[in-house]
Amino acid sequence: MKLKRLFSALLPIIAGVSVLAGCNDKNTTQTNTTMPKEGQELAGNITFWHSFTQGPRLEVIQQAAKEFEQKHPKVKIKIETFSWNDFYTKWTTGLSSGNVPDMSTALPNHVIEMINFGALQPIGDLIDSIGRDKFAEGAINEGTVNGQNYSIPLYSHAQVMWVRKDLLVANNLSVPKTWDELYHTAKALTKDGVYGLSVPMGSNDLMATRFLNLYVRSAGESLLTKDLKVNLTSPIVQEGIKYWVKMYKETSPKDAVNYNVLQQATLYYQGKTAFDFNSGFQIGGVRANSPQLLEQIDAYPLPKMKADDPEVGIERSNIPMVVWKASKHPDVAKAFMKTLYDKDKYIQFLKSVPVGMLPAIKGISDEVAYKEDPVVQQFSHAEKVISDALEKGIAIGYEHGPSVQAGILTNQHVIEKMFQDIVVNGTDPMVAAQKAEKELNTLFEAIVVQ
Fold first, then answer.
1. Among residues 157, 170, 45, which one has the least CA distance to residue 108?
2. Is the torsion defined by CA of 219, 223, 228, 230 positive or negative?
3. Is residue 387 a contact partner of residue 358, using CB atoms and an 8 Å limit?
4. Where are the beta strands (DSSP E) in 279-324?
5. Residue 33 has what pLDDT?
6. DSSP code, position 373
7. I want to staple 267 with a disulfide (CB 3.0 to 4.6 A). Which of 222, 273, 396, 439 is the partner?
8. Torsion angles phi and psi, residue 189, rounded to 5
């Protein structure tokens, strides 16, 4: 397989740059470099880019790097931290300037784009050295092309519905099980300074794509067709677009038209929304912002089209790490990455955001040190709901397998601009969807498969 992409067409932020790269023959026939042997002397300076902006888990990573440097005096690890949005801009522009790290975290849809650009080294030997059977096969497959593994999952989470139990009780309302029930319940709770549900549409994030995907997937459809074209004009997707426009108008703050993920989540953290869709990271946010509400929040399965529809997991994320092809010291990078999975250190990392980061390797959730965490114990119901969603979910657009198209779908924010066009300009949903479909499919057509 050879994938060729006109870089400037897909990433306007790199104006005037044209790069033809991808899963080319050189990339797919490359063999893994050998993992360093235990006790082998390591030398070299590496840079680690990650998006662990929260204090506790950043501190765990920094401490791990310090301990690795002490064990290997000839190694220096430079850590640079970026938000997920800034990270996407950083690595895409970095490809044109050569300013990329030795290793980094990523999002699943980033990885496929990185592979397509020929930017990553295979790390199957790292996976094997830890124990391939310890990882879920689906998580490994998300970063696998032509039998080569280019990413390793560090932690996992899934999208679920977060509720305010106290608001439901005070208004004699039940946890909604369908989208229709969610609409009526959220509308009833939009009062007294609280919004039922904020609907984010900021064009620098993927939140509107996420919300639309939740609705469409619950109906058994995908935002991508089997032949990897955009699906925004089918009856179900049009129904979903109109549903979120209605929710925005009736249950959401109007500023949400420009919200990104943090702005969206902060409303829930502060007790200003009754419902939200997110992972277990909601717990830490509420604990930091409104600890008095911690007893009043919990997670439930995502709404369905009909209450008796079977349970389905819709969106999961296995957050991976990667080694960049440009690295001069991939052996050092992989050796350091391996230490992050040492049991005690790994549990400490997960407990820096308890329930927000679920184990990516088997057996950890059964460890006493993991189970004894008070947050894990308090939110055992939420953890089970998220774990169930993990087993059944998939990354946005991966219903037909990992693809660059899925990355473009989530990373170019065309769907967000479509929603803004509808709510700000009053454009008809079908007209706006047709325009967005054309724009995205034009980007897809820049991919030539030979």
1. 157
2. positive
3. yes
4. 297-300, 316-323
5. 60
6. -
7. 273
8. -90, 0
CB 409 within 8 A of CB 209: yes
Please tell me the distance from the alpha carbon of residue 234 to that of residue 238, in angstroms, as a whole number: 6
Residue 419 tokens, joined: 């929603």
Total Cβ atoms within 10 A of residue 340: 18
Q: Report the alpha-carbon distance of residue 119 to residue 24 in Å, rounded.
A: 11
Give me the helices (H) in 258-329, please.
Answer: 261-269, 281-289
Which of these, 264, 314, 293, lies nearest to 163 by C-alpha position?
Answer: 293
Token reading at 261? 């993920």
d(CA 65, CA 378): 31
How far apart, in whole angstroms, are the C-alpha atoms of residue 59 and residue 77?
A: 14
pTM: 0.90
Where do we find the tokens 């296995």? 318
CB-based burial of residue 256 (10 Å sphere; 0-12 exposed, 13-18 middle, 19+ buried)? buried
H or E stretch covering 275? strand 273-278
Contact status, residue 35 vs residue 335, Cβ threshold 8 Å: yes
Q: Give whole-number Cα distances, 159 to 19, 300, 403, in Å.
A: 35, 10, 21
Summarize pLDDT for 238-271 with one digit per residue, the tens. Answer: 999 999 999 999 999 999 999 999 999 999 999 9
Give the Cα separation of 43 and 329 in Å (integer): 8
pLDDT tens readout for residues 398-413? 999 899 999 999 999 9
DSSP 222-233: -SB-TTS-B--S
